[in-house]
Specification:
The protein is built from 9 helices and 5 strands. By secondary structure, it is an alpha+beta fold. A 5-stranded mixed beta sheet has the order 2-1-3-4-5, sandwiched between helices.
Amino acid sequence: MDSGLSGFADYEVIELLLTLGNPRKDCKDAAKAVLDKFETLHQVFEASVNDLCEVNGIGPKNVFGIKLIKAAADRYLEKKLIKTDPLSNSKSLFDYLYLSMGSMDRECFKVLFLDAKNRVISSETLFTGSLTASSVYPREVVRAALDRSAAALIFAHNHPSGDSEPSPADYAVTRQLLFACQTVGITVHEHIVIGNNQYFSFADQGHIAQMNREYLKNS
């Protein structure tokens, strides 16, 4: 209590979390073993339940504490974004997206729904799987936005490879989504690709503005 978390070694943090599910058991050896297996505290938090349970001394009961801390952090960062303007709070936006999506082994497509003042109404993962024109449906994105009375959107998806550079399919899907949303008067502010502690911003690189010019030219 006096020194805070800085007074704990990484294995001691894991040991403390393991005891939440099994308070009467010495979890030190299991904590050291799981840190040896996954190498970093971050990777321990991101590991699946099945992978964690492969470590001697860890089972479905005491893995609860490890998964709880990740879920609580995800919820905290999501709630922190609600009613804020993510366009002027990019660090909170990236923190939330990276923690919630950065370690997934499948591509997930998330939408942040914004009101007319660019404040976050909610966020939702709409699609899971490879990001192609056949797996992300503009009509479903538009329907979800209209259902939430959203005035603007931010898109995000992860690259399990860790490389945040967008693929040709990423560009094509972004263009289709932006055109579909513009048709019903919904603004697309951003599409962020999350990699391994890095990201690519379509807006920062000028692609959103260029696609908006294309839409105006063709409409």
